[in-house]
Target: tRNA pseudouridine synthase A
Amino acid sequence: MRLLVKLQYNGQHFHGFQYQHGLRTVQGELESILTKMHKSFVRIHPASRTDRGVHALEQCIHFDTELAIPSERWKFILNRNLSEDLHVSEVTEVESSFHARYLTTGKTYRYKIYTTKDRNPFYMGLKTHHPYPLDIEKMKSAMAPFIGVHDFTSFSSAKGTIQNKEREITDFRLIETEDGFDFVITGSGFLYNMVRIIVAYILEVGEGRREEDTLNIINAKERTLVPRTAPAEGLYLERIYYD
Amino acid sequence: MRLLVKLQYNGQHFHGFQYQHGLRTVQGELESILTKMHKSFVRIHPASRTDRGVHALEQCIHFDTELAIPSERWKFILNRNLSEDLHVSEVTEVESSFHARYLTTGKTYRYKIYTTKDRNPFYMGLKTHHPYPLDIEKMKSAMAPFIGVHDFTSFSSAKGTIQNKEREITDFRLIETEDGFDFVITGSGFLYNMVRIIVAYILEVGEGRREEDTLNIINAKERTLVPRTAPAEGLYLERIYYD
Model:
């Protein structure tokens, strides 16, 4: 039986999603519980491997089990064994052909920024502090040209290993909040560090440190044009889409 | 020159306010920075010594300095040296007779609870999870008799060393929030664990595990009548009053 599990996690005390020997990771914690329950190693497959410090409002994973546990019971059992910063919100049985990573049709990420002059100790690890004046209209002008199908080489980390850098961005919004704003971006997929590099660029435009030049930067396919990467703490994987 | 410093801190990574050798505490962190700046030991005096895991939206401390730094400059210097979970919101010069602890005329504490069925990993260390049905009206009836001057022996920890257990509660409210509620309590002063014991009692009444019996419990002056203490993570020192 293949199960699809929807998870939330607060990334600040994890060394990212992916298993690393001797370090606390989301994958390590889940596989350890499942392996104990099954008395043999259980591998989980995530929709996306989030980096160290990155959060998930919704992450999806799948795994296979022979245990005779009804899917509605799984949520309770997993949550009882998981630590407070990792929570299972839903477990459903899926067809054996389902794959949490290969079958995704899109993802939404949210990037949270607060702009008050004073630092807020209760946002530590949860929102990025940006106490400098920003021109919201300039940022919106720099965001609009991202929509569409583009090669995002200029907005991805040189460490990425995927050859095809073409992705489609279907939605990119700035949502004002009580004490700052969120960027919410939806696309077919995202390259390594892509959201954080895009956010760093938009903030530089908003600060007046560089002019809006989105399409030229995209077309240049040149990684060095946007050297900055926004911090992990503000980034949330928000939703995974399947057909 | 005596300075009054208003602080905020996220208590989840501190072993409380008070200095403890080899452990991370708010006092330890502040005194270490001040001692480096003065090249001699500087003692700070807080309005209240919060426990491990307890937060402060406003804590007040004072210390004496001979350094020729304008008080408006102090805030900047301290924040530059403090870690992210500890923030100075205000520094003002006060008379040499001022004392942050002895001159307080009252304090407000807030206790944050969320009641959604699912745990929220982003509230870890910041709000107490209470996913059981509560009768708000019953809780309010149990809260009302706290107002006034009472001996709070029944609602304080046996570990407290202060002889006089009489305190005045001037205000006690339940404020509903997006996903739960806050208790906000103001009084002349609070005994050791008093707010957390009162909250534990009110929640037991709200759950229907015990009947409202506030005045009788107070009058009994008997510590064993309320054996529970609500967790530290939901508690915030919110305000300190001086004349």
